[in-house]
Amino acid sequence: MVGLAVAARLSEECQDVYVLEKNKRFGQETSGHNSGVIHSGIHYPPKSLKAELCVKGNRMLYDLCEEHGVPFKRLGKLTVAIEDEEIEELERLMRQGEANGVEELRMIGKEEVRRLEPKVEVERALYSPTTGILEPDELMNHFYSEIQRHSGLFVPVTEVTSMKKVGDDYEVGGVSTDEKFTIRAEAVINCAGLYSDRVASMAGLDVDRLGYRLHWCKGDYFRLSGKPLVRMLVYPVPKGPGLGIHLTPDMAGGVRLGPNAYYVHDVSYEVESSEKEFRADVERFLPSIAEREIRADSAGVRPKLEGPGMGFKDFVIRHEADRGLFGLVNLVGIESPGLTASPAIAELVLRLYHDEIAK
User: 3-state secondary structure string, the chain?
Assistant: First the structure.
């Protein structure tokens, strides 16, 4: 998602933009295995890149969808306090969201929650009307078409295995459809997702010392059978490495549960969690789910910079000129809200390129 967004924006103003993709098509990993949520920006510390780019990206993304016909639904979201002791965390999220510039946030009581979502039973909720959904593939298709329209080149089945500085340029090597290749480039934008730390290390950076080492965090999804029980997104108060098992309507009219979050050492897209775990978590605020069937749906893996027990880690979006790598821009740890932030990230990278790299 982010690599396509960056390439689409760069190709508007730069010549010879190449997107190297190791898979047969784009979106086969993190980008194609997520909830498709357009986040409002309440979950991230003020002045962090995640906060600033999420709030900016939220507005840009709705405008982009309207202008280019990318389907979306601005559904709104309830973040719910199931017990009294969770209300304080809701209030903190509201203050944080307001500090980040999220618009129209308001705290609502159980009666208004029941009016908005009759089957949700909680003490209070934080209502964020700017949260929405889209289909990630549709957004990626838009960015891909923009790359083509501006004469950029998307090169699939092309895996980068080496990178070194040669004079003022970079020599990028790898394997493309079983043949070795070498490309000479003025600038390299590392948007390699789950493997962005490996690409950074190819350039000679010490990813452990710099805090670029990624920790893979998996999330499973289940799908609710029958008629949807909710109309908008419903999230619990976040705990642990994710945002908690939540309810997300999709563009087709169904509802998914998830994702949860647990750290893994290998990338697998098989659902490993139990129905019992998901049902128990959601029953806390949606008791009527006990009467419904839920079934395993899909899974995704996030490239998190924070490992188990670590505190908040922000996106890394950085030109590495001061480390002897003029022309290399690293994007590392781009997880949620990466989809929402993608057009804003693209603008930031374009600005870095023009201000610091272009000659």
Answer: CHHHHHHHHHHHHCCCCEEECCCCCCCCCHHHCCCCEECCCCCCCCCCHHHHHHHHHHHHHHHHHHHHCCCEECCCEEEEECCHHHHHHHHHHHHHHHHHCCCCCEEEEHHHHHHHCCCCCCCEEEEECCCEEECHHHHHHHHHHHHHHCCCEEECCEEEEEEEEECCEEEEEEEECCEEEEEEECCEEECCHHHHHHHHHHCCCCHHHHCCCCEEEEEEEEEECCCCCCCCEEEECCCCCCCCCCEEECCCCCEEECCCCEECCCCCCCCCCCHHHHHHHHHCCCHHHHHCCEEEEEEEEEEECCCCCCCCCCCEEEECHHHCCCCEEEEECCCCCHHHHHHHHHHHHHHHHHHHHCC
pTM (2 decimals)? 0.97
Domains and CATH numbers, the chain: 2-37+134-357 (3.50.50.60)
Give the pLDDT score at 206. 98
Task: Inform me whether the pLDDT recorded for 359 exceeds 70.
Answer: no
